[in-house]
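Please decode residue identities from the backbone states below.
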């Protein structure tokens, strides 16, 4: 199996060195390059094959928000996993809207980091428990900044099943196994749900599922 190729983007060299040393011991992951700011991220992507960018939000003169938008525009097949000290819901939502599909905090342990990298490399979202909790807390606040039009969108039984499993952090292969369907079928349903509900990413699907009582 091909190794997962990772770019570490953080403006602190000692942090990059620590993450690189940790990942060098993992057989299915390879750190192919590093960057200390957003401009370097784009430069490295031009000359390196990268599956996952492990990205901080604060990177000196640049920030992860703008960098993520540029990455997804120029390198859409490259998936972004945020590794940040910022756990505030505003940071989380803004990075997800910019194109990140994973978000964990810098207090994460080794095993969670590896799980997150592998999930994001496969195109699945990954949120640490703290991040998921803060998103849900924000959704449940009466004055939530999340203001979608309150309309009922008709979903099929299969779509509701898949939406429920997505909200429970099942990966596409896990959903396929649970429902005895192909991974490609799951992916098609996921894309259809995004279009039908008018949301941009998995975070939007989870918000809708909570708001409509599909999950608790």
């Amino acid at each position: 199996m091909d190794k997962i190729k990772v770019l570490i983007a953080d403006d602190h060299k000692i942090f990059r060195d620590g993450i690189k040393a940790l990942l060098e011991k993992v057989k299915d992951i390879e750190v192919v390059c590093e960057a200390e700011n957003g401009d370097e991220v784009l430069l490295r992507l031009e000359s390196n094959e990268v599956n996952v960018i492990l990205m901080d939000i604060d990177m000196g003169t640049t920030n992860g928000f703008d960098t993520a938008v540029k990455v997804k525009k120029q390198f859409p097949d490259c998936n972004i996993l945020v590794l940040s000290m910022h756990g505030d819901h505003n940071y989380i939502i803004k990075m997800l809207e910019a194109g990140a599909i994973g978000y964990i905090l810098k207090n994460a342990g080794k095993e969670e980091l590896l799980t997150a990298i592998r999930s994001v490399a496969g195109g699945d979202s990954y949120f640490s428990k703290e991040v998921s909790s803060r998103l849900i807390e924000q959704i449940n606040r009466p004055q939530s900044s999340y203001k979608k039009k309150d309309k009922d969108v008709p979903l099929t039984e299969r779509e509701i099943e898949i939406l429920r499993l997505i909200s429970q952090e099942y990966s596409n292969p896990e959903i396929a196994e649970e429902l005895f369907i192909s991974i490609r079928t799951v992916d098609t349903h996921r894309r259809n749900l995004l279009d039908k509900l008018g949301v941009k990413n998995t975070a939007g699907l989870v918000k809708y599922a909570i708001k409509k009582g599909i999950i608790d």
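Observation: The first strand starts at residue 4 and ends at 9.
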